[in-house]
From TrEMBL:
<dbReference type="InterPro" id="IPR004556">
    <property type="entry name" value="HemK-like"/>
</dbReference>
<feature type="binding site">
    <location>
        <position position="170"/>
    </location>
    <ligand>
        <name>S-adenosyl-L-methionine</name>
    </ligand>
</feature>
<feature type="domain" description="Release factor glutamine methyltransferase N-terminal">
    <location>
        <begin position="6"/>
        <end position="74"/>
    </location>
</feature>
<feature type="binding site">
    <location>
        <position position="185"/>
    </location>
    <ligand>
        <name>S-adenosyl-L-methionine</name>
    </ligand>
</feature>
<dbReference type="GO" id="GO:0032259">
    <property type="term" value="P:methylation"/>
</dbReference>
<dbReference type="Pfam" id="PF17827">
    <property type="entry name" value="PrmC_N"/>
</dbReference>
<dbReference type="InterPro" id="IPR002052">
    <property type="entry name" value="DNA_methylase_N6_adenine_CS"/>
</dbReference>
<dbReference type="InterPro" id="IPR019874">
    <property type="entry name" value="RF_methyltr_PrmC"/>
</dbReference>
<dbReference type="InterPro" id="IPR025714">
    <property type="entry name" value="Methyltranfer_dom"/>
</dbReference>
<feature type="binding site">
    <location>
        <position position="142"/>
    </location>
    <ligand>
        <name>S-adenosyl-L-methionine</name>
    </ligand>
</feature>
<feature type="binding site">
    <location>
        <begin position="185"/>
        <end position="188"/>
    </location>
    <ligand>
        <name>substrate</name>
    </ligand>
</feature>
<dbReference type="GO" id="GO:0102559">
    <property type="term" value="F:peptide chain release factor N(5)-glutamine methyltransferase activity"/>
</dbReference>
<dbReference type="Pfam" id="PF13847">
    <property type="entry name" value="Methyltransf_31"/>
</dbReference>
<feature type="domain" description="Methyltransferase">
    <location>
        <begin position="110"/>
        <end position="240"/>
    </location>
</feature>
<comment type="similarity">
    <text>Belongs to the protein N5-glutamine methyltransferase family. PrmC subfamily.</text>
</comment>
<feature type="binding site">
    <location>
        <begin position="119"/>
        <end position="123"/>
    </location>
    <ligand>
        <name>S-adenosyl-L-methionine</name>
    </ligand>
</feature>
<dbReference type="GO" id="GO:0003676">
    <property type="term" value="F:nucleic acid binding"/>
</dbReference>
């Protein structure tokens, strides 16, 4: 059987031409061996078992076919939290951490702080906020049963089971409730966008990616409904496409939100827009 270093060299050759063959080879091998990067560096000559080598080849072949690494290994890190992922949900992305950062700036760590994450998917946003705000009451919703079950699983595994995940479309599971903060990373890509046939998004559920009205339909719906679910002075924060800042700001302003702002992601692209309901 090949050694750790030999296995990585083989994988890098197989993955040549991809975006990050060295990183992908390492991450997949760490998953197979259930080890960290230090182990790979410390024991490069250690041989894989026959079962490990077979599994490694299988997973690398999936990545060569274009399957995202997060789906290949079944997990992704977000906000230093290890999350289980599946093809039923979007893969949490680093830029979404900007939404978490802005949310933390808008709420106080009081026992009566109520937060809801709409379209939670893996639960990434809700769980990140719950991990930082142990006194807050955090809720989440998703239309799809598979996503709800996945978010509940992640919450349990992370010891954040106080996050209440409900099945339903956007606000529908929370009729009569009021929140201090509403956050969402809804579908915002135009169905005609050519990028949908490229890269990792080819493997992600289109229902979590695309929205009508040039990607604005779900954002419009959330913005329309949010005033009925926000406490006076509460905030709505939305992730959106890099070219949607103007449209989203106009939507929020038209719905009566004030102090409307937009924050850029780590790549300098407009990514999160929010507004506050008047007190």
């Amino acid at each position: 059987m090949p050694s750790i270093i030999e296995a990585q060299q083989w994988a890098k050759q197989q993955l040549a031409g991809g975006e990050s063959p060295k990183v992908d080879a390492k991450v997949i091998l760490q998953h197979v061996l259930q080890c960290n990067q230090t182990y790979l560096l410390t024991w490069p000559e250690r041989a894989l078992s026959a079962e490990q080598w077979q599994l490694y080849q299988t997973l690398v072949t999936k990545r060569v076919a274009g399957e995202p690494v997060a789906y290949v290994i079944g997990e992704r890190e977000f906000w230093s939290l290890s999350l289980k992922v599946s093809p039923a949900t979007l893969i949490p992305r680093p830029d979404t951490e900007v939404l978490v950062e802005q949310a933390l700036k808008k709420v106080l760590n009081h026992a009566d702080t109520h937060i809801v994450d709409l379209g939670t998917g893996t639960g990434a946003i809700a769980l990140a906020l719950a991990s930082e705000l142990p006194k807050a009451e955090v809720f989440a919703s998703d239309l799809h049963e598979d996503a709800v079950n996945l978010a509940k699983y992640n919450a349990s595994e992370l010891g954040l089971s106080r996050v209440q995940v409900k099945q339903g479309s956007w606000f529908s599971p929370f009729v009569g409730q009021k929140f201090d903060l509403v956050v969402s990373n809804p579908p915002y890509i135009d169905p005609a966008d050519p990028h949908l046939s490229q890269g990792d998004v080819r493997f992600e559920p289109s229902s979590a990616l695309t929205a009508e009205q040039h990607g604005l339909a779900d954002i419009d719906h959330i913005a329309s409904q949010a005033p009925s679910y926000l406490k006076a002075g509460g905030w709505l924060l939305l992730e959106h496409g890099f070219d949607q800042k103007g449209a989203v700001q106009q939507l929020l302003t038209a719905k009566g939100f004030v102090e409307v702002f937009t924050e850029q992601d780590y790549g300098g692209m407009d990514r999160v827009t929010g507004g506050r309901i008047k007190e």
